[in-house]
Amino acid sequence: xxxxxGNCVLRDWFGPMAHRAGAGxxxxxxxxxxxxxxxxxxxxxxxxxxxxxxxxxxDLTSDQPMLLVVDDLQWADxxxxxSLDLLATALQQLPCxxxxxxxxxxxxxxxxxxxxxxxASTVLSPAPLSREAxxxxxxxxxxxxxxxxxxxxxxxxxGVPFFVNELISDTNGTPDAVVGSITGRLSRLxxxxxxxxxxxxxxxxxxxxxxxxxLTGHPLASVADDISTLVAAQILTPNGGHLRATHxxxxxxxxxxxxxxxxxxxHHRAAQVLKGRGAARSVIATHLLHTLPGADADIRERLRxxxxxxxxxxxxxxxSGFLSRALAEGPITSDDVDLMSATARALAGQRLLDEAxxxxxxxxxxxxxxxxxxxxxxxxGDALMVAGRHLDAQDALGTGRDPDSGRQRLFAxxxxxxxxxxxxxxxxxxxxxxxxxxxxxxxxxxxxxSLAAASVVLTFECQDGERARDLAIRAIGNGAMLQxxxxxxxxLYLATSVLHWMSAFSEGDAILTSAIDxxxxxxxxxxxxxxxxCRGNIRMHMGMISEAIVDLEAALAQRTHGWxxxxxxxxxxxxxxxxxxxELDRVADHRDELEELTHAPGxxxxxxxxxxxxxxAAHAEHEQAAHLYAQVGRLVDGRMDNPAILPxxxxxxxxxxxxxxxxxxxxxxxxxxxxxxxxxxxYAVAQALRTxxxxxxxxxxxxxxxxxxxxxxxxxxxRLEAQVATDLAxxxxxxxxxxxxREPVVLLRRAxxxxxxxxxxxxxxxxHRILERIGEPVKRSTTENLTSLTASERRVADLAASGLSNRxxxxxxxxxxKAVEWHLSNVYxxxxxxxxxxxxxxxxxxxxxxxxxxxxx
Length: 857
Fold this sequence. Notes:
CATH topology of the domain at 380-565: Serine Threonine Protein Phosphatase 5, Tetratricopeptide repeat
Strand order of the largest sheet: 1-2
Domain HTH luxR-type: 782-847
Keywords: ATP-binding, Nucleotide-binding
CATH superfamily of the domain at 380-565: Tetratricopeptide repeat domain
Pfam families: GerE
Organism: metagenome
Structural class: mainly alpha
InterPro entries: Sig_transdc_resp-reg_C-effctor, TPR-like_helical_dom_sf, Tscrpt_reg_LuxR_C, WH-like_DNA-bd_sf
Helix content: 55-70%
Number of strands: 4
Strand content: under 5%
């Protein structure tokens, strides 16, 4: 539509028809000839033309209704708008519908005629497209488009049809068609409108009339006029006391035509204006981020400050942007090592590990002292371990043969690298011996790292668990270690692992909960994963199986963000939890990954193999289980052979006894018990005694189980306590007969209550079998009761709970009323209820209206 052509609307509507019909041919004869002449390039008066339109339309609509469409009427010439204004009343008397679109805020040839036309019309303002409508449009072009792509188009377009179509066809940045459209609209406004629009869009939420005037250098009155025009054109919109673009795509389109130099200059001026007005430092830094690099010390400092703040807040992408831009502001020297370190950590957190390692390497080359170089190597080693690249981490950390006590940051991480990779710890023993000979007080970070590393090595060697526990507690220092390195600190997790292995569960759980809170407050997903894994492991042994699964699944979810640090221990813990709940099908998906991890050395391979052994044992594949447990023993031999970490001998002993190999089973169980006693962790001791009682028919089995229960009084481990109590109850009944069952019943009731609370079906089933054998009633949980219903019983129960009578149920299921009554009696017995009134609550079905008792027949 063009305002340069007179009567353009009538020419577009009737010109082609007139030429096809020919001169003087009906309906373009008589009064209608005026339209033929107009199409042929001859001007006619507005009166002749409006009469001709009515003449032609009366003829054309005599056979069928007509639809006439005008797009962007605001761009039409004056004669066209005036003609439509004059025709409005006449057209309403014909079976003819005129549809036209008008964009507000644009210059109009005849505003008076357009306003009358609008007043005579039905005005429709379409709402934005729904997500479903956007999905339909996206999939019409890309049938395999996923929900994420559709959500992005819907979010970025705001449901505006034009934006939707352009985002679908142009997926790289701001679509060219949108830029062209907005640029064209701005060009039709007054000359300074583009400058004002750019200033508003660049300032974002800070934009106000006064600030825009200061940024553009234009008079306040001129800027106010521009803003009024831009608001009328729906390019800008008021936002409280500020201004903003009507849509984010419009803001991007307004700024897109600017060159890099123009954009940089405007952002730099904005930073200066905002600085003079006392704006927040973060706002100023955001503008400086978009300037071209120079050599301004103040700009570098502001960018560094904002980058480090973003890093502590977990905004890693923002952090790396600010920090990288800060590095670009001037030459890099040895004074910039800390800035480079922060940049590397931000990059590593975004899974840009190769870029981060390159940055750490450059920083290490520039560092002028060993302490700084060791810190940088430690950071790189941590990042590699989090990514699961354990061998690379060991290479990055070095050999650790330097006895300098000031290098404990590296020493601490070497312990973990050795643990993960199965390297002998001989080369660390010299430093450990020095620490043990004269333990530091733990008043400094380096001393705390030394204490933590020594506690771990003692635990690996299955020596003096009480001393290892004491060293770990001193290392943690009432949370001082968490403050030293935040929740990223590698040794924090090793120290809490020592507490875990020594059954100091409450202490470990408390510090790990603080670490999780710290990580969550900073949005540090990698750290959150490691802390959740460690707490999940502790809670599993604390008997908090449901809570442990929540932690472990939370850690597993972070692998999508690049966390692969301790996948084998994580999957092993999940396997143990799922086995405890009888949910073997829930871990089947992890079997292939575990089998792949068994090829890794050290801790990784050992934990993966142990998990597969547990799965084999749970499936009664005893020969395979025994083989896998023995393989775990070979992997940990001489490195970390401690039953508090991986009780492989206990697992193999139980498999051997089930294979009919009692001698081998007893030998394994006795050695396992001896090593557990040597280390001293109450959980490991109780677990070892339980195993020995299960396989050694010549020993004092009852005495061993009582000793195991006594050991567990020193810690909090209700699951193992319930298992031992169940074993003891069964052993008492076996050895003492059925005469006095009071103690077995007490033991079983305690185990029954715990198993029901944590929904541990295997343990619960075992307890119930023993109770039923001695004639004691069984207290089943609601979940157990519901799963005990047959399919037919559950169907009948659901229908009864919904309010149907017995007769109605029988009719719906095509059975007799007697059959319904029989099923319901079984349902009542299994659920422990006396009437159908309790069914809605138990089955989670909304209670039917009216009295069930009145409706039942």
